[in-house]
Write a structure and sequence with these properties.
With 662 residues, the chain is α/β, with parallel strands linked by helices. It folds into 3 domains: 152 residues, no CATH class; 122 residues, NAD(P)-binding Rossmann-like Domain (Rossmann fold), CATH 3.40.50.720; 341 residues, NAD(P)-binding Rossmann-like Domain (Rossmann fold, 3-Layer(aba) Sandwich), CATH 3.40.50. The chain is 47% helix and 13% strand. The protein has a 9-stranded mixed β-sheet with strand order 10-9-8-11-12-13-18-22-21, sandwiched between helices. The chain has a 7-stranded mixed β-sheet with strand order 3-4-2-1-5-6-7, sandwiched between helices. A two-stranded parallel sheet has the order 14-17. Strand 3 and strand 4 form a beta hairpin. Helix 3 packs across helix 4 and helix 10 packs across helix 18. It starts with a helix and ends in a 30-residue tail after the last helix.
């Protein structure tokens, strides 16, 4: 039999011994103790056992009455239908309440018996009070012994349990410790907490010491002979997690973490939710404070449509939108498999009533639509008549769009145009387009096509006066085809991991974080604005590759190599954040900035250029596409390695002079 079987058998034996002390046994112990406490209380009152002789007859009668009152009261307060192995503060409060009420009743009986001259209660008047305090000590002590016995047995019979250090002495950390202490079969024994909160340091929580903060982690790991680390702080920053993982790796100690705050639906954490540290954790930023009520007020009871609903961003948008209880949620996408999956997932959530907002009647609709087909788009949106549209459908891969520019235009530009025009015709009041940081001074077709799409949305806002806005953000961790899953596949194949350039940097966001800020932007807009999300500091792609290799349990240079393949056409070393002339202001949300004058950059010839683009793509003329994009977007500088265009072909509209702030 292996060690895991031994641990499981030990756990079963331990539970059997603890459970053998049932409530009927506790009732017997209560009765025995309550037969003794009045005698002890009287002896204390009269200063000796020998001096209790004159009160013996009255004492027995008082004892029997008090015993009956207490046992009945304990029963009424539920002290014999609780599982004392999990005794908590609430249980102790119930004990105090039960003993207190019984004591008050006994005092009342004692008072009335003495008042009307009964010789049966010729006892000191302080006896019921003293007896009550002793009864409380006995009732609480008997029940707490169950927990003490459990811990003693665990320490005695599980010496081989791994010594676990829990990082974070908050609610999540205490939940994890409580579960480890009550489930010895897990083979893990918590030996203490480590917390940055100075108010908790050098104290004891759950009878475990709280060590100094993260700066002293390495020393604690060594001094306490730690064998496992659990990161139990859901809101911990990526920088801190990176330092923790590095310290653990240096000593060969495995580390697990609890889910992020956005992933914890019911605000409870259990051992089963622990998982290995992932790249998302290393890049995690401070928790986002979302104005949940404002978003709920916008979405609840409304008819919402998400385009590109089967994609990484689109599907997460659907999940979070559903949590705010829309009347109807439309899932629009071109890939039938991805729409099928998200449709089934969301309908399952509704059927199981797992929506945090409690709205159980949301209707889910799935639409298989190619947004490049205007008639189909107009028919679907016209029939559905959404109040809010989140437009996430787009071609996003830079190298592929550089090779297929006409496809980028038909999907990103004309697809957006079709959805916007259909939304206007259907009376949609709120429209949010998911944009990208690659629209800023674009050097590739994908970024330029998304910049043109922004202009179409902004022009619609200006014409209709409706809340049509765009939201820009950087790369999304874990999205399909993005760098992280690509690197993981390379690592799984044994390498090498290909990185384009050692100085290549990108801005990254997690999918839930990006979607939360998109939803927040939807309530900040008034129409015609572009919102830019705070993406933190750029991350070197090569550092990302190194972290993924280490998290996979491999060593760089020994188990797997990194090779540099060169910058691909259309790529920048570092993405930019600002367009010359745009004015960037703060909003009510600290992580969202607004480009108030974004509409002023929409050229007067937008419609004419779009018509010309339509003619160019009809003949599949990539060079014509690039030329027209340069005419439309002043800051677009195509990669000359692929597009060698004579400048005299390009006719640009004079750039408007607008103030800027950085």
């Amino acid at each position: 039999m292996n060690s895991s079987d031994d641990k499981q058998d030990f756990g079963l034996r331990l539970r059997g011994r603890i459970r053998s002390l049932r409530n009927r046994h506790i009732l017997s112990l209560d009765a025995l103790s309550l037969l003794v406490t009045p005698f002890i209380a009287l002896a204390l009152r009269v200063d000796g056992i020998s001096k209790t002789e004159p009160f013996r007859d009255s004492l027995w009668k008082y004892t029997l009455v008090a015993l009956a009152v207490r046992l009945i009261t304990y029963k009424l307060f539920g002290l014999y239908n609780r599982y004392w192995r999990y005794a908590s503060v609430d249980d102790m409060i119930q004990i105090v309440a039960g003993v207190g009420v019984a004591t008050i009743v006994n005092i009342a009986i004692f008072y009335f018996a003495s008042r009307f001259g009964s010789a049966h209660f010729a006892l000191p008047r302080s006896l019921p009070f003293t007896d009550g305090m002793m009864a409380l000590i006995c009732a609480g002590g008997i029940r707490m012994c169950v927990r003490v016995e459990q811990q003693a047995l665990r320490d005695k019979h599980a010496p081989d349990a791994k010594r676990v250090l829990v990082l974070g002495a908050g609610i999540a950390g205490q939940m994890i410790v409580r579960e480890l202490q009550t489930k010895p079969e897990l083979g893990m024994r918590p030996i203490g907490f480590l917390d940055n909160d100075t108010n908790k340091q050098n104290l004891r929580i759950a009878n475990l010491p709280v060590f100094d903060g993260l700066n002293g982690l390495s020393g604690v790991l060594t001094a306490q002979n730690v064998e496992h680390v659990i990161i139990a702080t859901p809101g911990l920053s990526g920088k801190s997690i990176r330092e923790i993982v590095h310290a653990c790796e240096q000593q060969g100690i495995p580390a697990k973490t609890v889910p992020t705050l956005s992933s914890i639906i019911d605000e409870t954490v259990s051992f089963n939710q622990l998982r290995n540290v992932e790249i998302d954790d290393l890049l995690r930023r401070d928790a986002i404070q979302t104005d949940v009520e404002a978003v709920r007020n916008l979405i609840r009871g409304k008819r919402v449509l998400v385009t590109g609903a089967g994609g990484s961003i689109g599907s997460e948008l659907c999940r979070q939108v559903l949590s705010f209880g829309p009347a109807e949620l439309g899932l629009l996408g071109h890939g039938e498999n991805s729409i099928f999956e998200i449709d089934n997932e969301l309908k399952g959530i509704v059927e199981r009533c797992e929506i945090s907002d409690g709205h159980r009647n949301t209707q889910i609709h799935a639409f298989i639509v190619d947004i490049r087909l205007p008639v189909r788009v107009h028919n679907v949106i016209g029939d559905y008549k959404p109040d809010i549209i989140f437009h996430a459908a787009a071609h996003k891969h830079v190298p592929l769009m550089e090779l297929n520019p006409t496809e980028a235009i038909t999907n990103n530009v004309f697809g957006t145009k079709n959805v916007v025009e259909a939304a206007i015709a259907a009376g949609t009041q709120n429209f949010v387009m998911i944009s990208t940081d690659k629209v800023v001074n674009p050097t590739n077709v994908m970024g330029a096509s998304k910049r043109a799409a922004e202009m179409i949305v902004l022009r619609a806002a200006k014409i209709t006066g409706r809340n049509f806005v765009a939201v820009r953000f950087g790369n999304v961790l874990g999205s399909r085809g993005s760098v992280v899953p690509t690197f993981k596949k390379m690592i799984a194949a044994g390498g090498p991991v290909r990185v384009s350039h050692p100085e290549m940097k990108r801005f990254f966001m997690t999918i839930p974080e990006a979607v939360q800020l998109v939803l927040q932007s939807s309530v900040l807009g008034r129409g015609g604005e572009v919102f830019m999300l705070d993406m933190g500091e750029p991350v070197k792609i090569v550092d990302l590759a190194k972290d993924l290799i280490e998290l996979s349990g491999l060593q760089l240079g020994t188990d797997i190599d990194i090779v540099y393949s060169g910058i691909r056409p259309g790529e920048k070393l570092v993405e930019e954040l600002f367009i010359a002339g745009e004015t960037y202001d703060k909003t009510a949300h600290e992580k969202v900035r607004i480009v108030k004058n974004a509409s002023s950059f929409v050229p007067n010839r937008l419609e004419d250029v779009v018509r010309e683009l339509n003619n160019v793509i009809a003949t599949d003329d990539p060079t014509g596409v690039i030329t027209l994009l340069q005419e439309l977007i002043v800051e677009f500088k195509p990669d000359q390695r692929r597009w060698a265009l004579p400048q005299e072909q390009i006719t640009r509209e004079p750039k408007q002079e607008v103030g800027s702030s950085r």
